[in-house]
Structure formats: C-alpha cells, structure tokens
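Continuing from the previous page...

OK, I double-checked the sequence for Reverse transcriptase domain-containing protein against my notes and this is the correct one:
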Amino acid sequence: MNDVLVDDPTLMADQFVSAFASVFITEHLPNPFPHQTCPETISTVVFFPSDVKTQLLSLKTDSAMGPDNLHPRMLKECASQLAYPLYLIFRSSLSLGYVPAKWKISHVTPIYKKGSRCDPLNYRPISLTPIPCKSLERLVSKALFGFLQDNLILDDSQHGFRAERAVSDQLILTYNLVTLWYDQGSTVNLILFDFVKAFDRVHHQTLLDKLQSVGISGNLLQWIKSFLLDRSMRVSVGGSLSNNVPITSGVPQGSVLGPLLFLIYVNYIGSSLTCKYMMFADDLKLFLHHPGDPSSPASAILQFNIDTLAATASSWELKFAPGKCVHLCFRRGLGGPFNHEYYLDGIVLNQASSHKDLGVMVDNKLRFHPHIRQT
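Thanks. Re-ran it with the corrected sequence; updated structure tokens here:
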C-alpha cells in the first residue's frame, strides 16, 4: 500500500478489492446495437419442483458456502423438503424480473497466478456466490443454451463453454488447417490475441442490447438485467473481509450464467472479418494463408482484419494488450524468415518462433518440440 508492504489481513483485503475494482469500466452511452436479429424469442423459463430438486441433489457437499452461509450439504440433504419452497421463490423471481439483493453479493478469494506476489493484479479473483441463486442460474442457463443452439445463434468458431466442444477440438481444427496449408507450400500467418480483463469489462447496457437482439425478451430479459446490475463484492483474506465495493461492469465471476452471457457479448466480434478466426471464450486467433512469399495485398488484408477486430472490440469497451499479442509465421522454403510487421493500435506485434496456444507450445515449423521439452 503506497509502495509499503502490509501484512494486516484487513488492509490486504482492502488493497485487493481496490485492485480488482480498478479494471471495471464506468457506464456511458454505448454505440447502439441492432435489435432483433433473430425472429424467434424466449421470454420465460419453464421448470418444475422436480427440476429444482434435481439441482439440489447435484450439489457437491465439499463446496464452500456462499455469502449467505447456506451450506451445500444442508441444501442437498434437505432437497425433498426445500425443492417446492425454492421452486416458488425461483418462479416468483423470474416472473417479477427481480433478483434479491443478497443474491448479488460476492465474496472473493485472491488466488496467485504469476509475477510479483506483491502486486494484487497478479492474483485471480475467485468468487463465491449464493448457492440457491446458482441453482436458479443453472435452470436459466439450460433454457438459454437450448434456445441459442436451436436457432443457430452462437458463432460456430466459438468453442468455449459449449457442450461437446473442448480445447482439443479447437486446437485440432486450427492446426489441421495450418498444416494443410503449410504442406501445400503456403505461407500461414497466425495472430494470437490477448484481451485485457475481458470478463470484467463487459458493458452491461451493451450486453442487454445484444441479449435483446438475439431474441431474449420480456420477464427473462428483465431478470437478467436485475441479475447484472447493482452487484457488489468483498474480498476475504485470512478471515478478514474488505469494504463492500460496487461491481460496475463485467459478467459475475463465479456465477453459472456469467460464461454464457460472455459468449453472447462477443458473439459477433468476427462478423466483419474477411480472415478465418477461431475463439475459445476470450482467446481469439485469426489467420491468413497465401501461396509462396506474401504479397502486399495479402499483408494488407491481414492488417485490415487486425484493425477491424481492434475497432470492433473498442466499440464494445473491450481492449487487447498489444505487448501480449503474438504473430506466428509458418513458412516453407528458402529466403529466411518473413519479417513483415503487423500493428495493433500502433504497436508492432511481436513475431515469435514459438508461443503457447491454449496450453500447447506451438513453434513456427509445426514440430512441437518446445511443448514436448516442457512435458
């Protein structure tokens, strides 16, 4: 704190909560998003007491309690007695489009990632939210996923948080294409993008506009709005809690519904691109192949797509970290390395000989030697 190390748990908790809150964005008038691009709508979620009981019985009894101090073991062992009362509460919450204030409080535990342990931003905020709310979220999420999949709304290039899709699927699709083009003698340029705190920078009104554009309406849209707004968090360190801090942007960390809401938020980020792209949640890559040495038109096309992607992300209050974005060039033949420079927000992208992509170290000769040496 003020360049002075502290070891008091309360002061540490306050420092962490201030650091985590610093990445939020403040409300402003966003660019309008086109409404009702999907002819179908979903305005409510249908479920029964038996569905609530199933949710309670699926709880893991070794999970931690939420801020409401309701233990999952108690909820699970009393599932038969609690299913109908909770069903009435859930149904009332959805019909009124209202999420109780106590369900919108998160208790956050900082988990170290990498870098200096003295920097709070080198810790990942792991949130605990009330378990009854998460049970309702699962019912809502199931209905929303079904609606989105039935109407083919989700971008097919997106593999994150989706059933029957995994990291390995996306990697196989990506490098099968890269290998195919590489074996044909093409030059393949792959740009790996790194978002800055993407889940925390989701602009709430823009997200609500996008939800409406894909057909989410009525009480369900109002419920999601209530779910998003007026949230708060406290950080727990050594048994001490920080001050309560409002959450002004982002999808709720630690929630069940948050990942799906994020997928909807970034769903059309590639709609104006002319290059092929792939996504896994907030990991995004785009690539372009062309025969032989790259021509000026090919380089210009890739730069245009980088600029287009950056402009789209910026209009949605998302931004990239240019210093962490990487250019990999896969190229056969003589002539030395291809040193064409690509720019993101005026900063030259680092051209690497190898880089980690979704946990796999990839080199520009497709030999995977760096990954093998690390395992």
